[in-house]
Design brief:
It is a single chain. The chain has about 150 residues and is mainly α. It has one domain. It is about 60% helix and about 10% strand. It is built from five helices and two strands; from the N terminus they run H-H-H-E-E-H-H. It has a two-stranded antiparallel ribbon. Helix 2 packs antiparallel against helix 5 (about 110-145). Mean pLDDT is about 85; it is low at about 1-5.
């Protein structure tokens, strides 16, 4: 298992180190790395979200405050997953428009398109850091269990 002085060189080494960990640790590593990448999308979404200028709107900045990352479950085997949640009823109407409202003002999809590369890079970097940290934690636990 890698030590603090060691860094992962590539995908193959990261995959081998990750497979040595328990399933729960693997999911935790994936979830933490996904949250890191998800935060880039959350920040881009907040920056791109429009602010309502309608005087009847009681919460004009609610779209900017709404996006956040949350843990999610993917499939029956509960793989690590993270969702970007926008808890604002107006988000869908603003993103896609409606018959009763003004036309669409997309903010979420452009944020996704503009951050694809940065999210991938952040995920890769975070995954490498998390795999090394998890491997170190597993080695410490194993050493502690061996001394008992």
């Amino acid at each position: 298992m890698p030590s603090k002085a060691t860094e992962l060189e590539g995908y193959k080494e990261a995959r081998e180190t990750l497979h040595e960990l328990s399933k729960a640790m693997q999911r935790g590593v994936g979830r933490r790395a996904l949250h890191t990448a998800g935060q880039i999308l959350v920040q881009a979404t907040k920056a791109a979200a429009p602010v309502s200028s309608d005087p009847r709107d009681k919460t004009p900045g609610s779209l900017k405050a709404a996006p956040r990352t949350v843990n999610a479950k993917a499939g029956k085997r509960a793989e690590a997953a993270v969702a970007i949640l926008v808890e604002d009823a107006a988000a869908v109407r603003v993103e896609f428009g409606s018959v009763h409202n003004k036309p669409a003002e997309p903010f979420f999809r452009p944020a996704i398109d503009s951050t694809k590369g940065a999210m991938g890079d952040a995920f890769g970097a975070a995954l490498a850091v998390e795999v090394v940290a998890a491997a170190e934690r597993a080695a410490k636990r194993k050493a502690k269990a061996a001394t008992k």
